[in-house]
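For consistency, the fold was encoded as tokens, which produced the following:
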Amino acid sequence: MPRRTCFAAALALLASLPAVAQAPTPLADQYKPVADRIIAAAMADTDGYADLTYLCDHIGKRVSGSPQLNTAVQWGADLMRKAGFQNVVIQPVMVPHWVRGNEQASLIAPVAKPLHMLGLGMSVGTPKEGITADVLFAPDFATFDALPDSAIKGKIVVFNPGWKGYGVGSTYRVTGPSHAAARGAVAVLVRSAT
């Protein structure tokens, strides 16, 4: 039995052991020596950790649609084939792919000052000529929603809800851009949680 198959069998057996340990039966007693050997082999096997180390250290992050993801998928399939698995198939799938561009933002009035910023994953790209517009500050969605469309149209909206937990901040990052775009905003900035 290949080591990885042995490890998988041992894990499956371990999952069922609490019930066996609570109520020994002749069947459990009959297979205990075999089960003990499988568990001992699995506990001595470090292949899983070695594979995980290789995946993390040599292939690295696997962002959807990235070359590293494709490398990791192929590596995983090859690993399963080497372990003796039959019918290993890589199924083609459509995944979103976003590439970080060159990012910059600047305050141009009342003083010129560069801003520290980072584009959020899956955000819409800015035109090559950039966007220059007046800024509308909104501390929260309630304040923003109370404004007439005429106050929002053509503006860069800055959401700054303050720190009310990661969940609240994430809501502004995830839904803020589409929320503001629906009202005519040309861009959205969200203050970092940090």
Summary: Residues 65 and 94 are 8 Å apart (CA to CA). The longest strand covers residues 135-138.
